[in-house]
Amino acid sequence: MERLPDGSFQFAPPRTFPITIGPLTDADAQAVAAILSANTRCDLGGPAPMPAAQAHAALRALLERTGARWRELDEYAERGRWDYVAHIERRRAECPQWHAMEEEQRRSLTDEWHEQAMHRLSESGIDGPQAFLDHPAFAADVLRLSGPDAASPWAARAETADLVLRTYMGAAYHARQVATFQDQNMRGTFPMLEWDGVADSVACARCRRHFGQRFPVARPPRLPLHPGCRCGLTGRNKWALADEAAARERAPGTIPPTA
Ligand SMILES: [Zn+2]
Ligand SMILES: [Zn+2]
Fold first, then answer.
1. Which residues surround ligand 2, an ion (CB under 5 A)?
2. What is the pTM assigned to this prediction?
């Protein structure tokens, strides 16, 4: 980990973007590093890991006590925030009865617009709407738009702790997997890696673009792609690739060529 001039610390999971949390004291940064590494040791062949629930509780408590923030999540949320706010404000401006409505009606309409805005975000490349539901950047807007108890900073801390752990563990798991395939490819067994994503309603357009893409095992992509990304890689062995090539020969155009 590395201390930055603004008092935050960069924790460097292998093969992906750094996780920057701060401001933290040196002792708190050590504690974060210990939580992260204890919780990933299972993937790296070390001693027993810290159970996930215990790691989550410890990280959440630390974030609550210090008020530290995860910079990459803030940047990621900020990217989608204006689109989200603009959508809700536009719908409100188009609603002539808004000013005459009861508080409860306003809230249920805002909830509906919130759902629509979240759907738009996932369409435009922002993943996992749950990550934003309680994010302070959005919470402040939902608060302003629909009443005083629409958001809870507690939930935001729990969500942040969960995303930090999942991102770090995902990166460690991914690095381990790549190393295994590279190892096996010493004998030419696994020449290619294929991007493997979860094609559900919250998967973002940015990740979807890569689903099924192939990479030479020596040049794997960096994963996770963003906070909360659930993508992974699978190995394509030489026999499967040969079968595909033969099938393409027999029926051109039915199987997409390897990138
Ligand atoms: Zn994504
Ligand atoms: Zn992804």
1. 207, 225, 229, 231
2. 0.73
